Amino acid sequence: MVSVTSLLLAGALASSALAETHVYNWTAAWGTANLDGYERPVITCNGEFPWPDVIVNKGDRVIVHLNNGFDDRNTSLHFHGLFQHGTNQMDGPEMITQCPVPIGHTMTYNFTAPDQIGSYWYHSHTAGQYMDGMRGVMVISEDNNDYPYKQGIDYNETATLTFMEWYHDTADVLIPDFLNLYNPTGAEPIPNNFLMNNTKNMTWEVEPDTTYLLRLVNIGGFVSYWFFIEGHNMTVVEVDGVPVEKYETDKIYITVAQRYTVLITTKDDTSKNYAIMQLVDDGMLDLIPSGLLLNTTHTMSYSSDNAEVEEYYVDCLDDDCYLDDMKLVPYDKVELYDDPDHVITISVIMDNLKNGVNYAFFNNITYTAPKTPTLLTVLAAGDLASNELVYGTNTHTIVLQKDEIVDIVLNNEDTGKHPFHLHGHVFQLIDRGAAVDDDDPFVHFDYDNHTEFAEYPMMRDTVYVRPQSNIVMRFKADNPGVWMFHCHIEWHLVQGLALVLVEAPEEIQNNSAQQLTQQHIDNCEANGINVKSNAAGNTENFLDLTGQNVQHGDIPDGFTGKGIVAMVFSCIAAILGLITIAVYGLMDIKNLEVEVAQDLGVVEDLQNTEDVVVEETSSKQSSAEGKY
Ligand SMILES: *[C@@H]1O[C@H](CO)[C@@H](O)[C@H](O)[C@H]1NC(C)=O
Ligand SMILES: *[C@@H]1O[C@H](CO)[C@@H](O)[C@H](O)[C@H]1NC(C)=O
Ligand SMILES: *[C@@H]1O[C@H](CO)[C@@H](O)[C@H](O)[C@H]1NC(C)=O
Ligand SMILES: *[C@@H]1O[C@H](CO)[C@@H](O)[C@H](O)[C@H]1NC(C)=O
Ligand SMILES: *[C@@H]1O[C@H](CO)[C@@H](O)[C@H](O)[C@H]1NC(C)=O
Ligand SMILES: *[C@@H]1O[C@H](CO)[C@@H](O)[C@H](O)[C@H]1NC(C)=O
Ligand SMILES: *[C@@H]1O[C@H](CO)[C@@H](O)[C@H](O)[C@H]1NC(C)=O
Ligand SMILES: *[C@@H]1O[C@H](CO)[C@@H](O)[C@H](O)[C@H]1NC(C)=O
Ligand SMILES: *[C@@H]1O[C@H](CO)[C@@H](O)[C@H](O)[C@H]1NC(C)=O
Ligand SMILES: *[C@@H]1O[C@H](CO)[C@@H](O)[C@H](O)[C@H]1NC(C)=O
Ligand SMILES: *[C@@H]1O[C@H](CO)[C@@H](O)[C@H](O)[C@H]1NC(C)=O
Ligand SMILES: [Cu+2]
User: Fold this and answer.
1) Whether residue 518 sits in one domain with residue 492
2) The last residue of a domain, from among 332, 363, 390
3) pLDDT tier at 458 (50, 70, 90 boundaries)?
4) 302 & 219 share domain
5) Which of 181-185, 433-437, 618-622 is the least confident region?
6) What single DSSP character describes residue 619?
7) Has residue 585 been placed in a domain?
C-alpha cells in the first residue's frame, strides 16, 4: 500500500538527511474478520484487515488520502500524538478541526512530523469507529542520529506488539444500548476477548542473545492492562514518543492510547519458550461474565520445538508492584515549567440528564458538538476569535494565550479510572493522587498541600487518573491550534467527556500554512455545514448562538430524580427479558434501583416511587439534537 512518490532534499543546515514523501491511498469500508473464533463486521482498509503500519523517518512527509467507502456513515482520521505544528487542520477529530468526511468523499491528510521520533498510532475520530478496527500503528524511526538509543549500540532488532479489547458486536449495536435510558448507571459494554496483535494467542518469535527495541501500543478503546514476560525484565526508553532515561522494570501498566518502548534482551539458551502476559485491569469492568478470560497468555518463542507455555503468575499487582511512570525522567531533562499563568480546574462526574441517559461531564458540561467545526469558527471569527462565546456554551471551549503556562487540574469525582489525552502536545504530569475508596469522599488537588513536583517531570500525551482522585498536567501553549482534551475511553467520549482548547487564535488565523484545503470546504458543503460561522451555524452575528446544539436538560429540581427512577423501573419491568447483560454490567437487577438512586442523588425510600408521576416541567434548556 505504501508508495514512495518522490524524494525531496531537506535543506536543513545541520543535517542533510533525505526526507521522503509517503503516499497512502486508503478506502475505509465494511468487511468481515474473525479474530477470536467469531466472524463479525470490521472496518477494512482497501478491503484488508487489520490496517497497515505506517513507518516513516523523522522529517518525512505523510500524505493519506482517506476515501469514505461506507454507504451509511461519515468518517475521519486522527494521528495520535503528532503535534501537527502549523497543520492543525490535519489533526482529524470531526467537528473540531474538520467536517466529517461524507460518503463517497475524500480527505487528504498531509503533514510532516519534523520534531518527533517514536511510537504513535492512528485511528478514526468519528464515534465508535476505531472500536470496529479503524486503527493502526505509526512509527517515526530513529535511523537518523537524533534518537538517544541506537541500533547496533543499544539494541539489535525492533518489534511491535499491540493491545486491544474485542467485541462480537459492532459499535452501532453497542452505543445505542449503552447511551440508553435502560442503562441508567452508564455501565460500559463488556468485551468478549482481550487481544494482542489481533489474536488471543500471539507468538513473538525471537532470536537468542539479542536486544530488542520493543514497542507496546494499546490501540484499544476501553481497558488497561498489566504486561509482563516470564523471566525477562524490560528497560523503558520511551513513553508516548518522549525518550526517557533508561528505567528497568518487570511489569508495565498500559492504558488505551499509551505507548511504551522498552529494551528487552533475550537469553542465550533456546531450550524454553516464555509466557507473555496480558492481564486486564478488571476493576474497570462493571461485570465479569463467567468464561471471560481476564489473563491472556501469549508466547515468546525461542524455538517452535519447545513445549507450549503456561500462564505465568505474579504475586502482586498493587500500585507499588509495577512501573510508576511518574518516576520516568525525559532524556532531554526538560525542567518543570514555571508556575502556571492559567489554571483550568475541571471535575469529572457521570450523571443522568432528563432523558434518563447517563452522560459524562467536565464541570457540568457534557461535550456537545457544535454546528460548525471549532477551527472553522476560529478562522472565520476575526477579532471575535478570542471570545469563547463564539464557540458555543456546550463545547466547553477555552481560549489560551500564546506561550502561557497552563495547568489542567483534573479532579475525578467518579469511581472509575480514566486515561486522559491532550491533542497537539505532550505535558508534564506533575501530580497524581493515590486512589480513594468508593466509600470515602473524593480528594481534590490542593496547591497548598501536595507532594513535591519533580525537577524533570515525566512527559507524555496520555495519563490516567485514579478513582475519586486527581492529576495535574502542565504544558506550554506553544502550538497554535484547536486541540481536544478528552478521556480516551471511547465509551466515555461518546458520553461527552471532552473539552476543547483554542490556543492562540490570532496566530492560527495568521499562519498561511494553516488554512483549509478545498477538500475541507467541499466536505463541509456536502454535509450542509456552514464554513464561515459560529458554533450555532450563524454566519452574520458570531455572538448570536440561537440554534446551537446543547445537552439535554438537567433533571428538574424537586421530584424528578425519583421520577426518572420510577419511570425506568416501570419500563424495566416491561422489558426485563430484553436487557443484554453485557450492557447492564455487574448490577443484579434487584439492586439496580439502589444503584440508580445513588447515581441520581436520590436518597428517599424507593418504595414510594409508584406515587410519582413523571412529567416534563419547563426545562431550562432546549433538548439536544447535536449529540453525536
Ligand atoms: C485511490 O485509489 C482509488 C481506487 O483505486 C482511485 O480511484 C483513486 O484515484 C486513488 N486516489 C489517489 C489520490 O491516488
Ligand atoms: C455526516 O455528518 C453530518 C454533519 O454532522 C450530518 O448532518 C450527517 O447526518 C452525517 N451523515 C451520516 C450518514 O451520518
Ligand atoms: C501537501 O502539502 C505541501 C505543503 O503545503 C504541498 O506542497 C503539497 O502540494 C501538498 N500535497 C497534497 C497532495 O496535498
Ligand atoms: C547486538 O548488538 C550488540 C551491540 O552492538 C552486539 O554486540 C551483538 O553482537 C548484537 N547481537 C546480535 C545477535 O546481533
Ligand atoms: C497457541 O499457539 C501455539 C503456537 O501456534 C499452539 O501450539 C497452541 O496450541 C495455541 N494455544 C491455544 C490455547 O490456542
Ligand atoms: C504485531 O503487530 C504490529 C503492528 O501491526 C506489527 O508491526 C508486528 O510485526 C506484529 N508482531 C508480531 C510478533 O506479530
Ligand atoms: C527485574 O526488575 C525488578 C523490578 O525493577 C527487579 O526487582 C529485579 O531485580 C529485576 N530482575 C532481574 C533478574 O534483573
Ligand atoms: C491472573 O493473574 C494474576 C496474577 O498472576 C493471578 O493472581 C490470578 O489468579 C490470575 N487469574 C486467573 C483466573 O488465572
Ligand atoms: C455543577 O452544578 C452543581 C449543581 O447545580 C453546582 O453546585 C456546581 O457548582 C456546578 N459545578 C460547576 C463546576 O459549575
Ligand atoms: C494534605 O493532603 C494529605 C493527602 O491527601 C491529607 O491526608 C491531609 O489531610 C492534607 N492536609 C491538609 C492540611 O489539608
Ligand atoms: C496577525 O496579522 C496582522 C496583520 O498582518 C497583524 O496586525 C497582527 O499583529 C498579527 N497577529 C499576530 C498574533 O501575529
Ligand atoms: Cu473515561
Assistant:
1) yes
2) 332
3) very high
4) yes
5) 618-622
6) P
7) no
Q: Which residue has the cell 454546528?
A: 371
Nearest C-alpha neighbor of 15 from the set 120, 143, 154, 192: 143
| Euclidean distance between CA atoms 552 and 539, whole angstroms | 25
**Claim to verify: residue 127 and residue 156 sit in the same structural domain:** no
Q: Are 469 and 437 in contact (CB under 8 A)?
A: no
Choose the residue to mutate in 149, 153, 211 for probing ligand 4, maximizing ligand atoms within 8 Å of C-beta: 211
What residue numbers bound the domain in which 309 lies?
Answer: 148-332
362 part of a folded domain? yes
pLDDT for 113 equals 87
Q: Kindly list the protein residues whose Cβ atom lies closer than 6 A to any atom of ligand 5.
A: 201, 203, 308
Does residue 388 sit in the same domain as residue 505? yes
pLDDT in tens, 215-253: 999 999 999 999 999 999 999 999 999 999 999 999 999
The reply to whether ligand 7 has any atom less than 6 angstroms from the CB of 249 is: yes
Pocket test for ligand 9, best of 345, 351, 354, 364 (most atoms within 8 A of CB): 364
Overall domain count for the chain: 3
Entry pTM? 0.89
Residue with cell 473464533: 37
As a three-state string, the secondary structure of 320-336 is HHCCCHHHCCECCCCCC
* C-alpha to C-alpha distance for 363 and 348, rounded to whole angstroms: 7
What is the pLDDT, as a whole number, of residue 559?
Answer: 38
Based on the fold, state whether residues 391 and 496 are members of the same structural domain: yes
Length of the chain: 628
State pLDDT tens for residues 90-122: 999 999 999 999 999 999 999 998 889 999 999
Look at residue 316 and tell me if it is in a domain.
Answer: yes
Note whether 293 and 421 are same-domain residues.
no
Q: Are residues 180 and 135 in the same domain?
A: no
Closest-approaching ligand to the CA atom of 436: 10
Q: How far is the CA of 250 from the centre of ligand 7 (A)?
A: 6
Q: Which of 527, 549, 566 is the last residue of a domain?
A: 527
Is residue 416 domain-shared with residue 504, that is, in the same domain?
A: yes
- Quick one: which atom of ligand 2 is closest to the CA of 72? 13
Selection from 179, 146, 167 nearest residue 40 by Cα: 167
Is residue 615 assigned to a domain?
A: no
Query: Ligand 12 being an ion, which residues bring their Cβ within 5 A of it?
Result: 418, 487, 489, 492
CATH of the domain at 506: 2.60.40.420
pLDDT in tens, 302-317: 999 999 999 999 999 9
**Ligand sitting nearest the alpha carbon of 63:** 3
Q: Which atom of ligand 8 is nearest to the CA of 312?
A: 5
pLDDT digits (tens, 9 = 90+) for 418-437: 999 999 999 999 999 999 99
Based on the number of CB atoms within 10 Å of its own CB, is 37 exposed (0-12), middle (13-18) or buried (19 or more)? exposed
Answer yes or no: is the C-beta of 3 below 6 A from any ligand 10 atom: no
Ligand lying closest to the C-alpha of residue 61: 3
